[in-house]
Amino acid sequence: xxxRFSQRRALWAITKASFRAIFRxxxxxxxxxxxxxxxxxxxxxxxxxVPGRNKIAFAPGTDTSSELYDxxxxxxxxxxxxxxxxxxxxxxxxxxxxxxxxxLDAKVDLKQYVDSAGQPxxxxxxxxxxxxxxxxxxxxxxxxNLSFKMERKMAGTKFNHFQIIPNIxxxxxxxxxxxxLPGQLGFSVLFSxxxxxxxxxxxxxxxxxxxxxxxxxxxxxxxxxxIGASRLFFQLVSIIVLIAxxxxxxxxxxxxxxxxxxxxxxxxxxxxxxxxxxxxIFSSVAKTDTSxxxxxxxxxxxxxxxxxxxxxxxxxxKWMQPFCEALPxxxxxxxxxxxxxxxxxxxDCWKEIGLLGIWAVITxxxxxxxxxxE
Length: 374
Fold this sequence. Notes:
Blueprint: H1 7-24, H2 26-44, E1 54-58, H3 67-73, E2 78-80, H4 92-101, E3 106-114, E4 120-129, H5 135-155, E5 162-169, H6 177-206, H7 209-215, H8 220-249, H9 258-285, H10 291-306, H11 321-326, H12 328-340, H13 350-370
Parallel strand pairs: 1-2, 1-3, 4-5
Antiparallel strand pairs: 3-4
């Protein structure tokens, strides 16, 4: 009696063979682990604070009628963030929360008075936290330069019109690695998954392996699952290595410990699922293997540059920022940073998960329509 064909054994065989093929490809290891670790060590060694303009908010009651106020809001090194609610009031609780998370560099209160000689005097009282890291020193330097220029303009060499009063209180430190490592997780997942899936399926189709699979008793879905599962497992291993490297050697923050780690892995699986669909699309529409890198780069490089991988997206012009926010890698980076440093959970990342869900639906709708077995 002939042995009954086992779909489970066929799925395992495909998964195992695909996994072995991944580890034989040195470029997979380089893009997934080596390059991200090198970037993490380079950018993570720059110290605390995220590069870009200092983000400040004005305290309730600040003097907005002075020349000093106009100088601050027009300074290219400063970005003013508004916390006004729909009722016109300032949300001081949200402002304090962002200060303690390092999202806001300082709360600034400007005062002006005139002395008995009729000379104006200005007080810059700003509150910041240690979560802002080196941004505190940069902000102080900016205020010093502003006051210096205005002093020269007002009184030549006599410097006594300005008083700068800092108030820095200590909170949980924000290290540069807390910004850089999430971006490198996205970098690793993006390139490795796209190149791996696109080239794998293109090669299998060109060598007629997919056609033979299609004619075999193996379910078509098992073929896709087997190859996809091997890529998923490999990427998860690389993600675990990157997180562990950042945590044990560079003080990467996992606020809720192992729970945070599991949620980072869950978000990584989510973006992996989406990117595997993009890889399937590229493998199907590419006419030659030389066109695959072009397609991948056209999709990937805007995301690497515009999704907050190496620097915040608020350094870009306001008209460009909505486009940046629409990119899937931006949502992944935002969610990872919220989970790791802010202690948010997956349920708090409903916006990011929802936007990625839209990308998933669009991606697999297109993938189903264009995928070819031969």
